[in-house]
Amino acid sequence: MSTEPPTVTRRDVFVTGGTGYIGRRVVAALVERGHRVRALVRPASQLRLPHGCTRVVGDALDASTFSTHVAGCDTFLQLVGTPHPSPSKAAEFERVDLVSARESCRAANAAHVAHFIYLSVAQSASLMRAYVDVRRRGEALVRDFVANGAGRSATFVRPWYVLGPGHRWPYALVPLYRIMEAIPSTRDRARQLGLVTLAQMVRTLVTCVERPPGGERIIAVPEIREA
Fold this sequence. Notes:
Blueprint: E1 12-16, H1 23-32, E2 36-41, E3 54-57, E4 75-78, H2 90-110, E5 115-119, H3 129-147, E6 153-158, E7 161-163, H4 174-182, H5 184-192, E8 195-197, H6 198-210, E9 216-220, H7 221-225
Parallel strand pairs: 1-2, 1-4, 2-3, 4-5, 5-6, 6-9, 7-8
Helix pairs in contact: 1-6, 2-3, 4-5
């Protein structure tokens, strides 16, 4: 019996948000695994992109500045988002997160991309309402993109809080999460809004690129933790 690892199909991936907290690590991982990556970047941030990817200088809030570079890509990875989200940033969510999702869908539609991966958020009805609402509307835009072309698919990745360098204070909440997960009435909510690590997120997003679904796929916190 062969012990060789399964062959990975090389993907042509267009990434927005590739210089961000999660994005630059995902881009580096995709390049390392042999995928062809084009990453959208602002002029001043070009040096922040990992080596090995193709730099596309443009504005994530204006598809006309990058849409021609999406042609030939089979996967679109949307990672743009307001850093350190908080209730005070509701206007920025509308101006950046939602507009970038709309423009990315426009570009992906024009390029006939087959698989759109959208970094969303766990669907809480009571916490971070403005942020969750914008991400829900972003998901709706992606669903419209899928419905607009034959053979298209979408993956929605829904973390809550991602632990990593500079994002470690929630470790103090781990004992509380364990208590909530042990109580039947709060178990599901604790799991839905659980903490995930940066490494888990990177592995999850790489897997999403390499294994496109046959339609719509939702990756929630429990699935991210298994990555």
